Amino acid sequence: MTSGSMAVRGILLSALCLWSLGVTANDTIRNRMGALELDFPASALGRMLSADSVLPDFYRHRDYALAWSRSEDKDALLDAIAQSEQHGLSPSDYHFTQLSRFAGVRPSDLDAETLADLDMLLTDAALKLASHLAYGKVDPETLQSGHAVARSGQAVADSLAEALASQDVAAGFARFAPNQSDYRKLSEARARIHDLSGEPWPPVPAGPTIRPGMEDERMPLIRQKLQMLGDLPLVGVEPGQQGDVVYDGHLVVAVRQFQGRHGLEDDGLIGDGTLAALNVGPSERLTQIDANLERWRWLPDQLGDTHILVNVAGYDLRLVRGNNVVMRSRVIVGRPLRPTPLFSDSIRHLVFNPSWTVPRTIMIEDQLPVIRQNPGYLESMGFSLYRGWGPDRQPVDPASVDWWSLSEDYFPYQLIQEPGPGNALGQVKFMFPNQFDVYLHDTPARHLFRQSQRAFSSGCIRVENSLELARHLLESQSGWSGERLQRVLESRELTTVYLQNPVPVHLEYWTAWVDEAGTLQFREDIYQHNGAVTAALETSLDPGAGIQMHQASAR
User: Fold this and answer.
1) Structural domain spans, the chain
2) What fold does the segment set 301-355+422-509 form as a domain?
3) What amino acid positions are annotated as catalytic residues?
4) How far is 192 from 199, CA to CA, in rounded Å?
5) What are the angstrom distances between the C-alpha of 30 and each of 45, 255, 273, 389?
6) What are phi and psi of 228, to 5 degrees?
7) Which residues pair with 309 in a beta bridge?
8) Is the pTM above the cut of 0.70?
9) What is the mean pLDDT of residues 526-544?
10) Which of 61, 248, 266, 327 could join 260 via S-S bond, C-beta 3.0 to 4.6 A?
């Protein structure tokens, strides 16, 4: 007989003895936890206990005593589970139906085994909900549901134990969710969209572009949708206006507002793009919001007193100091075939008047076809050509190279663009060394910032107001005045400045958020990331699969 079998037999014999002596709820919990520690599945009230890596320690620390003896604590947990939907989570993942059947039931009405089962199921639900609120249901590295990322399961268990000990479970669960105001505002906006989800949402038919002053039979339906979404106030609407087919006045203003908050050109013209956005129903918008609430839960608790947030999907950068946005800028991000990666790091140094060492992929896929068609391209754009790499590289005359003989398999050269007005990195780059070799930088291609859709780069992030960002980052840097910065730029000499206090930078992907004015914004899912997150969120957790509450992992 193996040692594991002997241990199980011992537990069973112990359970029989306890039963004959009169089993208490604590005894039942002790035996069930013993089975879990031996990697045997355990259930309660017909549901598998899924927080199996944390439950035994949780109960051991309280000597297997009941955790939910106070009805107020149970009610607070049931309320938190019911309200989990406001966070884009599903109450069914937390045994809500089974636990609701015991609402209002007195402990004295239950036998010891049922009382223990109820307590364990409450704890299992609480640990799982707490971990999902704090760190997300979805593991961003695998996009599988059921995981808690960034902090150990013991930390969640300790926080739950503290909430129970202080007899304030409701406040405890309020603290588990992200404390950023942007998260709370998006959750509140979700409630407003949820109220519309039961309303019919007939599509506006396709047709010619509707311009201000025109009449169109589709206008009553467009007006109705804009009113339901809050873009067109109901105040001042006179009887008969609901059926008006004329497109003018306040309706034009409402359309432009709708276009602006959906990342469209706010020209007031109702074309295919505007109609497509109007035809996205509230239920689809809910799933979009839920995916973005989940992304907030992947972020660290503290973003940094001073930090930079880049919303890749929104083509937007914000520099935040304290709780205030001190500057913002439009950005250009990676195109779908070369998407900007998403992660957090810290800007450690700035490089003024940078040279650009062209990555191999860009040399072969982007530059080589141009050079073949225009032999003078390298000289006109300030590129130097080298054979080899590092200190042993040798300069090469571009005119001596047979560019048509080169390919992905044979390209022994390196392209470096010298500092200057045409340099692809502009006047400054912001460095946070990372495995993806991406960074923030300036660009001479200023006209691209006028586009509403700005996915044009090869992965790095081009910043419209890059010099303003540099000035902000150097404000507290000793010896760096605005005059000195200007002298450095005018010198056109490569200059590296290491920040005395590195600044956290978070490259994120939000296709739904609430802006500083309180307006709910939506953007196109340019990298098609939402679908995988939504699918994982909507996956009901396998009752027999333990949630992985593990240590911090980098995104």
Assistant:
1) 3-177, 301-355+422-509, 360-418
2) L,D-transpeptidase catalytic domain-like (2.40.440)
3) 441, 460
4) 12
5) 16, 63, 61, 65
6) -65, -35
7) 318, 506
8) yes
9) 84
10) 266
